[in-house]
Structures are given as C-alpha cells and as structure tokens.
Amino acid sequence: MEYVGFATLPNQVHRKSVKKGFDFTLMVAGESGLGKSTLVNSLFLTDLYKDRKLLNAEERITQTVEITKHTVDIEEKGVKLKLTIVDTPGFGDAVNNTECWKSVADYIDQQFEQYFRDESGLNRKNIQDNRVHCCLYFISPFGHGLRPLDVEFMKALHEKVNIVPILAKADTLTPTEVKKKKFKIREEIQQYGIKIYQFPDCDSDEDEDFKQQDQELKDSIPFAVIGSNTVVEAKGKRVRGRLYPWGIVEVENSAHCDFVKLRNMLVRTHMQDLKDVTRETHYENYRAHCIQSMTRMVVKERNRNKLTRESGTDFPIPVIPSTTDTETEKLIREKDEEVQRRHSEHEPEHEHSHDEHSDRPLEPHSDLGLDPGPEPEAS
Ligand code: GDP
C-alpha cells in the first residue's frame, strides 16, 4: 500500500490540543475539618505550581460557608492546564445538616444549564466550560464506615458528577485499620447503591504491569490520603509531611498513603476519562432531561395556541424545567439582543482576539501575566 499520510492524524490532533490548552474542574466535598483544603494544596501546589498559594488553611476555615471557585493556570513542558477547584461548604458544623448536599447539587446543575444554554446559543466557539469533572468526597476516618449523611450526599450527586471517595487523614489510622475501613466503605457503597466513578476496564492487550497497576488502583478505593502544607526533613530529604513526636508521615510516600496514587489517577491517567464521562454520561443525562421537559412545554404551548407559529423546526429555547411563559419570552428577547450585539460587534472582532483569551480565566488572579494565551507559534 502506498503511504498517503493520514498516519499523521494523531500528531495533528496532538498539536492542536496542546495549542488550545486543557482544562479541568475538580470539586471537593465532605465534612469540614477533614483536610480538604490542605489536600488540594498538596495536590496541586508543590508539583505543578510551586510558588503559588491558594488560600491557606486558616483562611479556609472561616471561609468554607459557601461554594468558592479558584482557578490556576499551570504549565508543564509547554502544556497548559487551566485547573479550577470548587470548594464546597464543609458541612457538619451546622446543627441541621439535612439537605446540605442541595447547594452542591444545584451548583453542578447550574454549570450544566449554563453549558446547555451556551451550546444552543449563537456563539458556540468560545464556550466557557465550567462543568464539574470530578468530586473528591471526603469520608471521616473516625466513623465506622459511612455515616447516613455521607450516603445521602453521595446519592444526591452520583448521577451528576464523578464521585471519587477519599478516606481522609489516613495518618490517624494504622495500616490494618485503613484496610478494614476501606473494605467496609467499599461494601457500604455497594450496599447502598452508590454509583461512584468507575475506572474504565483496561484493554486486554495491555501489558501485565499495566494491568496490575490498574487493578491496584481499583482496589485502593477509597483513597486513603494525608495532606500537609509543611515541608519537613526525612532522612536528609525535604519532603511534604507531618511531623509527630514519634516520627514523620510523608504525603508522597506510597507506603504511608495513597496520595501519589490519587494524584497520578487525577492528573496522569484518568483526567481525560473523567472529562469524557462527564460529557457523555452526566451532561448527556441532564441534557436529555432538559430537552424532554422543553418538548413537553412546546407541545403544551402549541395545543393551547394552534394559530401561532407553524414551524416544527424552531429549536426550543433552553429553559429550566420549571419555566413559565413569561420567562420564555424573556429568553427569546435575550437571544434577539444577543444577535444584535453580535452584529454590531462584528467589525472590530480581530482587534479583540486578545480579549477573548483574557476572559478565559474565571477569576483573574492577582499576579503575573501567566495566562495570556498561547504564544503565536509558527504553524
Ligand atoms: P477542611 O475544612 O476540610 O478544608 O480542612 P483543612 O484542610 O482546613 O484541615 C483542617 C485541619 O486538619 C487542619 O488543622 C489541618 O492541618 C489538619 N489536617 C489536614 N490534613 C490532614 C491529614 O491528612 N492528617 C491530619 N492528621 N491532619 C490533617
């Protein structure tokens, strides 16, 4: 066979996606004080973003009463990643914790809704995608397995987001206890019908090493982690860890906890799969649901007013299920305005291409110009 050249397709895709950059949105949830903020710092600060501080633990403690979002632009070997961390209110402090998952579930839905609107709107090119790709759910090491609240929380979210359960503060447990707790939690997850993120099966033609690693990863659920914001000296090396009178626990030592496993999973091996599942399963569910209720609404409207618009081709405007007629009208108006606006914006568009990059980060960070788009690369 002659060589035509489509074998370069993977390279073309690669070049394009590197140029465009990647994004990932990670949410943390669970009782307050379980080390969520500390872990996020440990996960992304040391390795990927050495000199930057997210909020420190003290600031967080006073702050975790509402959902906060933080974006960092990270670059490694020329590959850009826009990482968004969504921190949710640490529940457990309040006397009444019923429905504490509600605001989190609403938040996830809102991101889907926004995406759905944008996707069916006029400017689909530069959609800001804020959909949540993964939720690390922190489980207390002090309970006996899952508490009712954990079950309730995860069940409220499991159809909306990829849940990865985390056994927090693993340094407070002995290895045997960790093992037992993990087993119990896995059992309960099954028993209560909680659908956590499923690692994809690995291909049968993968090598044995890879298969074994994959199996180990699956058996590690829930990841037992340790977080720390301090660097200590262990055997002459400076490592991130926790210093106790009897010794040091090292965050990145896989004999001490699953931190590295978790980070590799999130960053190196399963980031794309988490995004794919978000898009293909969770978002798709939301979208189907929305379209269903919109269709119902349109049919109802038609039946009510048979004299009006005849066409069956007009794509219904995305509206949330509980919408009313006046809201629909408002949306149509908004769309009209958008058309007008885009018309009038049309001429200076080239001049603005820089702006388009600058509205990518959600919350402009204070420092340096790290994020202005990709360097113009000779193509
Ligand atoms: P959050 O409320 O879940 O965000 O929890 P923080 O990250 O603010 O941590 C609460 C407290 O637990 C702080 O004093 C941390 O130093 C401590 N902490 C964080 N991670 C760990 C851990 O892995 N092990 C232990 N023993 N303590 C931790």
From TrEMBL:
<dbReference type="GO" id="GO:0051301">
    <property type="term" value="P:cell division"/>
</dbReference>
<keyword id="KW-0342">GTP-binding</keyword>
<dbReference type="InterPro" id="IPR016491">
    <property type="entry name" value="Septin"/>
</dbReference>
<dbReference type="InterPro" id="IPR030379">
    <property type="entry name" value="G_SEPTIN_dom"/>
</dbReference>
<keyword id="KW-0131">Cell cycle</keyword>
<dbReference type="InterPro" id="IPR027417">
    <property type="entry name" value="P-loop_NTPase"/>
</dbReference>
<keyword id="KW-0963">Cytoplasm</keyword>
<feature type="compositionally biased region" description="Basic and acidic residues">
    <location>
        <begin position="303"/>
        <end position="312"/>
    </location>
</feature>
<feature type="region of interest" description="Disordered">
    <location>
        <begin position="303"/>
        <end position="379"/>
    </location>
</feature>
<feature type="compositionally biased region" description="Basic and acidic residues">
    <location>
        <begin position="327"/>
        <end position="368"/>
    </location>
</feature>
<dbReference type="GO" id="GO:0005737">
    <property type="term" value="C:cytoplasm"/>
</dbReference>
<feature type="site" description="Important for dimerization">
    <location>
        <position position="142"/>
    </location>
</feature>
<dbReference type="GO" id="GO:0005525">
    <property type="term" value="F:GTP binding"/>
</dbReference>
<keyword id="KW-0132">Cell division</keyword>
<protein>
    <recommendedName>
        <fullName>Septin</fullName>
    </recommendedName>
</protein>
<dbReference type="Pfam" id="PF00735">
    <property type="entry name" value="Septin"/>
</dbReference>
<keyword id="KW-0547">Nucleotide-binding</keyword>
<comment type="similarity">
    <text>Belongs to the TRAFAC class TrmE-Era-EngA-EngB-Septin-like GTPase superfamily. Septin GTPase family.</text>
</comment>
<feature type="domain" description="Septin-type G">
    <location>
        <begin position="20"/>
        <end position="293"/>
    </location>
</feature>
